[in-house]
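Weekly sync, protein design subgroup
Attendees: M.S., D.O., the rotation student, P.L. (late)

Item 1: inverse folding check
M.S. brought a backbone from last month's batch and wanted to see whether the design step gives back something sensible before we order anything. D.O. pointed out we never logged the input encoding, so this time it goes straight into the notes. Structure tokens as presented (172 positions):
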């Protein structure tokens, strides 16, 4: 029976997310309370521990030959959401496209799927959600689905067609 495996089409997407989150963490740790960043005015009270968790192998990394137990778990969780669920939330879909464990979907603004460029300012108090909002993948996903609940198979088909995910089928 063939075994299907999914991967990000471009690993660079996950690397970019890691860099963006790392820069946000650094700006919170080393910036002043009045520092203005690309995320707007940085709020030092933002949960730095949340960013540390996200950076501790909750982002896919297939380049590192010495993967941690957490990285292996993240890979499995990421893949299981695609293969073992019937429906995904909008935030889970977005995190999958960005190479982040979808188990962290609750960290993002719950109504991210409703936010567009006109009301983007609503996210300036939530720099992590703003990072994910500004990604091209978010805009593509919102244009296609714009819904809180998305059929997993429909999402996979769309992501494969748009070269956001790739599929490998191995004969077992």
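Designed sequence read out in the meeting:
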């Amino acid at each position: 029976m063939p075994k299907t495996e999914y991967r990000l089409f471009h690993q660079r997407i996950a690397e970019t997310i890691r860099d963006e989150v790392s820069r946000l963490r650094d700006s919170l740790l080393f910036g002043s309370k009045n520092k203005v960043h690309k995320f707007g005015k940085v709020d030092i009270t933002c949960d730095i521990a949340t960013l540390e968790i996200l950076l501790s192998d909750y982002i896919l990394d297939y380049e590192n030959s010495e993967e941690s137990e957490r990285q292996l778990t993240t890979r499995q969780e990421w893949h299981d959401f695609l293969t073992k669920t019937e429906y995904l939330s909008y935030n889970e879909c977005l995190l999958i496209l960005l190479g982040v464990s979808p188990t962290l979907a609750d960290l993002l603004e719950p109504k991210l799927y409703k936010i567009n460029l006109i009301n983007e300012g609503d996210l300036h108090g939530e720099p992590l959600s703003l990072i994910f909002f500004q990604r091209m993948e978010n805009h593509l996903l919102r244009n296609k689905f714009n819904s809180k609940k998305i059929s997993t198979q429909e999402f996979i088909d769309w992501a494969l067609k748009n070269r956001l995910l790739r599929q490998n089928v191995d004969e077992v």
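Discussion: The chain has one domain: 2-165. The first strand starts at residue 2 and ends at 8.
Action: P.L. to compare against the previous round before Friday.
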